[in-house]
Write a sequence for this structure.
């Protein structure tokens, strides 16, 4: 006669639940990933707490996650022997919206930013740690039986997702950890099939560092009684169905792109594939492994979450310690997701200790370098990918100019801006592009800060420079003005804000020269046409040049790539 108490869900939970069920209906499979991910978190938490209190692990050897099927009862049970939940934790974690991310999500819904509930897509939901509720996509009733490690009492939480849950004491012999029993809905019968679950585990949860076990195929004898009421009395032999080793400890050659992508979804809560990743082992006076991801899009609450930095998990010798993005990465790289696993830090390292550690300082320096290397590589080899990155995080990266004096030159190299030659604000160039196009007389980089694209483009200070054919970088975003206080030099060239202070126009040639050049160009047009026809596709283009003084013509690789020295060299060769 256990006493059963009934509690109402917090109003918000009901709302989240409805959103989850409706928006993820066509994406049912993800519930398993979410629940296995929670079980894995629970095992990691226990391992972490056991560092200070080894007795917590006393009654159980290996940490495992078991998937148990009962076709007759139509239930799927996900069981772990991790940290478990106390009565209060069951109420708090499964009955309220405690996560600040979810809070913000709901607040923005209320503010009408996403007025119609129908348009909430799977990606958004996934970013807010509403994982547990995804169980209701496939189940119309859920029983959660749990014992907190080190506690004597165990509890059962039950709900059918209709706004209420109940709590009652569980039998005294309930093992440590949590068992979620899902009573599957009519249309979720697929998940009663052993092969279906195995394939989902392999696809989504292969990287989970703990063994995920399922019943081994029974040797076709033993036609005895089945356990009553789905109680796993005569427990079947279990076999491990995943790799069960931390993904980042495996060698790159053993890992496929799909492995990396699945792991990304696990660490980031992002449903979309990452843009890129970098996986490295460093050995020397610091030994650590890092696996860092660049997301392809900014999380929904990315800007709001500026002061709550997460996304980089710190492990010490394979044991999860804490989310340590703040200590391990500079703020301007806060879009990076992933893990760092150190062999040298003490297992009992605290947040305070991390803040002061020289070792951590070195790891942070190395990670920063890795990310910048990776960005440079993408910028160089995959410009389209880089544009995707830039659209999502370019403004964040700009903070690096201010924040990271030591890497300022490298950050500057990664920045992209429209210029006076751009037809729209999205047509951007790098500082290197700009330098490559500088006219012969110019020895400084000119930029202009203004409030908005149109204000920048039509700025009166541009006229004199335009008349001289001088290109100007147009910085029109909000952060640019702040950043420009830190722009002094790039590639040995001074950066000059033409909106502030006077420019020595004389050294750039006169406007009349420019007008004369245009006249010359017009006059030469028929000659250019003749040459083009004569040379055919042996040349890319024939153009009138203002740069040659004595020679009649020169051969150019590509106008914008051409350095002054090269031109002079060619001139001296009489080309
Ligand atoms: P998240 O995993 O992002 O925190 P979830 O909705 O998936 O959000 O889970 C909510 C909370 O419920 C977790 O933070 C955790 O405290 C608790 N929880 C869920 N599943 C388990 C489990 N198997 N063992 C222990 N605690 C759990
Ligand atoms: Mg979760």
């Amino acid at each position: 006669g256990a006493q059963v108490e009934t509690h109402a869900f917090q109003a918000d939970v009901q709302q989240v639940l409805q959103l989850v069920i409706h928006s993820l209906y066509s994406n049912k499979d993800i519930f398993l990933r979410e629940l296995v991910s929670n079980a894995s978190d629970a095992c990691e938490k226990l391992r972490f707490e056991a560092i200070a209190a080894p007795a917590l692990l006393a009654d159980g050897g290996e940490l495992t996650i078991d998937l148990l099927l009962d076709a007759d009862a139509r239930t799927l049970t996900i069981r772990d022997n991790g940290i478990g939940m106390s009565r209060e934790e069951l109420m708090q974690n499964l009955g309220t919206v405690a996560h600040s991310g979810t809070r913000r999500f709901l607040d923005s819904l209320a503010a009408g930013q996403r007025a119609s509930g129908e348009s909430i897509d799977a990606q958004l939901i996934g970013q807010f740690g509403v994982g547990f509720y995804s169980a209701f996509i496939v189940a119309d009733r859920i029983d959660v039986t749990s014992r907190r490690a080190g506690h004597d009492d165990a509890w059962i939480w039950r709900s059918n997702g209709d706004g209420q849950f109940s709590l009652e004491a569980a039998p005294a012999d309930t093992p440590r950890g949590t068992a979620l029993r899902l009573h599957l809905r009519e249309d979720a019968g697929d998940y009663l099939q052993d092969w279906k679950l195995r394939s989902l585990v392999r696809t989504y949860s292969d990287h989970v560092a703990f063994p995920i076990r399922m019943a081994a195929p029974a040797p076709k004898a033993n036609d005895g009684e089945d356990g009553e009421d789905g109680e796993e009395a005569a427990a079947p032999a279990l076999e491990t169905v995943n790799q069960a080793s931390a993904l980042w400890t495996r060698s790159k050659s053993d890992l496929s792109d799909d492995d990396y992508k699945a792991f990304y979804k696990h660490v980031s809560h992002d449903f979309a594939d990452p843009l890129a990743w970098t996986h490295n082992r460093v050995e020397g006076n610091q030994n650590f492994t890092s696996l860092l991801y660049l997301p392809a899009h900014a999380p929904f609450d990315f800007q709001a979450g500026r002061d709550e930095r997460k996304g980089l998990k710190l492990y010490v010798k394979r044991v999860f310690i804490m989310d340590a993005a703040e200590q391990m990465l500079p703020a301007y790289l806060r879009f990076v997701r992933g893990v760092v696993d150190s062999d040298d830090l003490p297992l009992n390292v605290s947040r305070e200790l991390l803040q002061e550690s020289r070792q951590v300082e070195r790891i942070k320096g190395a990670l920063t370098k890795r990310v910048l290397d990776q960005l440079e590589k993408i910028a160089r080899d995959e410009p389209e990918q880089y544009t995707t990155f830039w659209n999502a995080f370019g403004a964040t990266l700009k903070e690096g100019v201010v924040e990271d004096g030591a890497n300022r030159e490298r950050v500057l190299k990664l920045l992209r801006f429209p210029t006076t030659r751009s037809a729209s604000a999205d047509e951007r160039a790098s500082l290197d592009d700009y330098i490559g196009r500088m006219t012969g007389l110019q020895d400084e980089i000119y930029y202009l800060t203004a409030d908005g694209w149109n204000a920048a483009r039509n700025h009166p200070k541009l006229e004199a420079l335009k008349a001289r054919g001088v290109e100007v970088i147009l910085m029109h975003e909000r952060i640019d003005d702040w950043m420009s206080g830190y722009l002094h030099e790039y590639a040995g060239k001074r950066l000059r804000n033409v909106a502030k202070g006077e420019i020595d126009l004389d050294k750039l040639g006169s406007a009349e020269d420019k007008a004369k050049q245009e006249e010359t160009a017009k006059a030469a047009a028929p000659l250019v046409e003749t040459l083009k026809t004569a040379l055919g596709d042996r040349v890319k283009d024939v153009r009138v040049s203002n740069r040659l003084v004595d020679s009649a013509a020169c051969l150019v690789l590509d106008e914008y790539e051409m350095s002054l020295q090269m031109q002079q060299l060619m001139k001296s060769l009489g080309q």
In short: The pocket of magnesium ion (ligand 2) is lined by residues 34, 37-38, 129, 131 (CB under 6 Å). Residues 511-535 form the longest helix (25 residues). Confidence is low (pLDDT under 50) at residues 112-118, 556-565. The CA atoms of residues 138 and 188 lie 6 Å apart.
